[in-house]
């Protein structure tokens, strides 16, 4: 399964370093060429001889321990298809997140422009440290694949979150990344993102709290999986795929409907305003002495239902943001809208949803089957949604 693939493993000075010996064997059994680098302190926990025997390759430790005249960090980057840092200590995570290159491993990461998996392992209080969490979030935001530690009995004698995730999880993530590049090749996908803006006058408008992060994560994931992606967004964003900027619900309706039955899937992740101003004021409305002001609103078109009603070959996926009775309301919505799938999330929770980098959702299909996706990064949730829709 890994024949002709080169995996670069970076081992840092966590007590779980000894476990990586078995991970090397797992990769080797599937035909991978495994290259290993360790931080100097990691050698207190695992030996060069052991790693060289298992990998059947030279092990790299120091920038200046050069047997051939070539920059090792660049040559290793060119050779490897993926990099796995496990266990990743708080120290190394923080260095990588801030571009610090003070050893061979961190220097190599800085130059590595292919997928990177980071599997943290540390004391539970270190893992929960606000600066460590901020650095982990920063890495995740920029596309690093973070495999969060698990809860269990730790080497320091306490029980809590911080234990290196299972080797199977690291191995399966490696397989997934190395084999996922083209699974959506040939598919055309349109995704909407952000909250629409309904103008009142030249300086005021009605909108919502949607950040567009979930829609953008879906577009990023679809693009990485090989799809031809168009993102219809309410905000400016620079991406390697096609981005169409819109503002109001009517603007979005006009753009989105162009694609129906011309693409394989439309995902309506945008938070489209239910109402718009009945009469837009061309001039700024002046404040008066009155304590009240009345503004008339009219209903916006239901883009999701329009798509579902007219769809013949395009899969239609909607989103459902609820603050109560999540599943019950989601069931009603998917039956009323008629879409193929509905993604339901709870916006009453502060740790997920609007503006958060994480989410937890339920996927409903049009037969009311439900699949729960546990709390994870929006990029991970996005990938799982796409896998479900195109399973």
Give a brief outline of the structure.
By secondary structure, the chain is an alpha/beta fold. It contains 13 helices and 20 strands.
Description:
The protein has 2 domains: 6-179, Rossmann fold; 188-389, Rossmann fold. It is 32% helix and 26% strand. The protein contains 13 helices and 20 strands. The protein has helices at 20-29, 48-55, 72-79, 90-97, 104-111, 124-128, 130-141, 167-179, 213-224, 249-257, 303-310, 326-337, 378-389; strands at 6-11, 33-38, 59-60, 82-88, 116-120, 145-146, 150-153, 159-163, 188-193, 198-201, 204-206, 228-233, 242-245, 265-268, 275-277, 297-299, 315-322, 341-346, 358-365, 370-377. It has an 8-stranded mixed β-sheet, sandwiched between helices. A 6-stranded parallel β-sheet has the order 3-2-1-4-5-6, with helices on both faces. A hairpin with a 2-residue loop joins β10 (198-201) and β11.
Termini separation (Å)?
A: 20 Å
What count of structural domains? 2
**Helical percentage:** 25-40%
Q: Determine Rg (CA atoms, Å).
A: 25 Å
User: What is the number of beta strands?
Assistant: 20
* CATH homologous superfamily designation of the largest domain: CoaB-like
Oligomer: single chain
Predict the CATH topology of the largest domain.
Rossmann fold
Bulk shape = elongated
User: Could you report the average pLDDT, rounded to the nearest whole number?
Assistant: 90
Percentage beta strand: 25-35%
Read across the widest sheet, the strand sequence of neighbours is: 13-12-9-14-17-18-19-20
Question: Mind summarizing the main beta sheet?
Answer: 8 strands, mixed
Number of helices: 13
Structural class: alpha/beta
Low-confidence runs: none
Architecture per CATH nomenclature, i.e. the level-2 architecture of the largest domain: 3-Layer(aba) Sandwich
- Name of the CATH first level of the largest domain: Alpha Beta
